[in-house]
Structures are given as C-alpha cells and as structure tokens.
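ok trying again, last paste got cut off:
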Amino acid sequence: MKKILLVYNPVSGNAAFKKNLDSIVESFQQRKILPILYRTRAEKSAEEFFECVKISDVQGIISAGGDGTLHRVINWIKNFEINLPVGVIGSGTSNDFAAHLKIFDIEKYFDVIAENKTRPIDLGLVNGKEFFINVASAGVFTSIAHEVDSKQKNALGKIAYYLRGIGELPNFKTIELEVKADGKIFQLEAFLFLVLNSPAVAGMKKISESAKIDDGKLDFLALKKCSPRKLLSVTQKLFSGKCVQDDPNVFYIQAKNFEIKSSADLISDLDGEIGNPLPLKIETVRHSVNFFANSEF
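nice, full thing came through this time. structure:
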C-alpha cells in the first residue's frame, strides 16, 4: 500500500476540510493509499513535519489548505531537502495554484496521485532564502490577505478580499521601482507589482497569457501610475480574471532573474504570506519540485 503524508490546515477556508476528513481518508484507502495525517500548528511545525516524514516512510506529500499552506509545505520540503512529489487539495479561502492546475474534481485528482502522475514545476526563490510557488508581490492590495479578519474570510471567501481592496482605492499611492530583469534595468512608478509563476492570483484566473509553471521563467507585471478612471478600469479587469499583460497601464516583462528595489518601505507578500522587505532578488529555480498533476496544465 502506498503511503502519503497528508498535511492539513485545520482553519483554512471555512474549516470544511476537517469536516470531510473521513470521506477523504476513505477515498485514499479505496485506491490503496494510506494517508498519514499531519495537522499544522503555528509553532514548531517545520521540525515536527520533518520528523513525521522521516519516521513514516511516505512516497508523497499532499498539502490540504489554501495557497499559504502550500507555500509552507513547499518551503519545508526544500529546506529539509526532501525529494518527494507534492500535491494539493485546495481548501482555503484562496486556492489559486490548485485552480490553475484545474484540480476541481478531487476524486479524479486522487486517481492522479494513485497512478503517480507527476510533472516538474518551477519555483521562485527570494533572496536565496524563501521559495514561492505562485506569486511574489508588493504595493497596494498585497497586504489585504493579512489584514482581512479571519472570520470575514471564512464567511465571505474571496469577496472579503475584493471588498477590502475596493475600499482602499481612494488611498492608493504609487511607488518608485527599479527593476533589473536578466541584467536590463527599468525605472517605473507603479501602484503594485507581481512576480508570477502561474497566471492565477487572488482568484484572478488568467491575468497573464504567458505565465507558465514549467518554462524556467517568471513573469513581472506592474500596475503603472495612471488616472483614477484608468486605475478603476484595470482593477475591474483584474477582479474579473481577464488578461492584463497587454494593457497600456501595465508594465510586463518575462525573465529568469529579477532584482527589485524601491525607495519606499515595502514588505513583500509570498503566496499570501508575509515575505521579505525590499529589495528583493528573485531567481527562477527550474523544475524544482515534482508535482502530482496530469500531463496537461
């Protein structure tokens, strides 16, 4: 019987995962997979996780939670040099990476895991220390994930983020950025920037047509300084999940490595978690993790 470590966040989303835990265990066992359960905690989770992997002799690791839980799992396996395939069960408020992989039918995804279908995917590495699987960002909107009340997130889901973002529109201020992309330097004034691995961010399904999770590159998008009317137009596109990389108010470039500086005091966001302060040095780590997924993304 194949064994997998099922790492679950008991408070992600509306905490629905733990309510469905028995049926999920049953689905795994029907496929001759024995799930070893690991419940995340705020403190000492990394060391406990590593001990659990060592003693359980698992053949894969599944993250059950939102993008933040997956971010934590990815950093654990990279920091402890664990060479096992990883998967995701999206059960958080925001499940962008799972949505990009079209993991909507969990039963079919369990078949993918049982058949050991994997694909190598890229990761972003920030300042040589912390990995991200989906997006690194800074500027307006990026602090919303940390500021929205957890009860409101559980009750309203992504709508809570949107409501908070719309409420902040009158207070938006631009930041001056210096961006070095594979050695080329760009100066710009922008409201925010995103460094994308996948094109799905904060429920916005495909804001870049070019972003791919296995091409050895990352995509940089910045919302440039513009009039309130144009700003509203671009944010409406973003919230509706439309591609914006060709919008005249968006700066877009693709590269393997980025260095991002600003005179402003900015803290980055990595996959919905509080990240490093600027400046940031971001590099693409190609095919860094094998991920349970179908052959087509």
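cool. Confidence is low (pLDDT under 50) at residues 150-164. The chain has ten helices and 15 strands.
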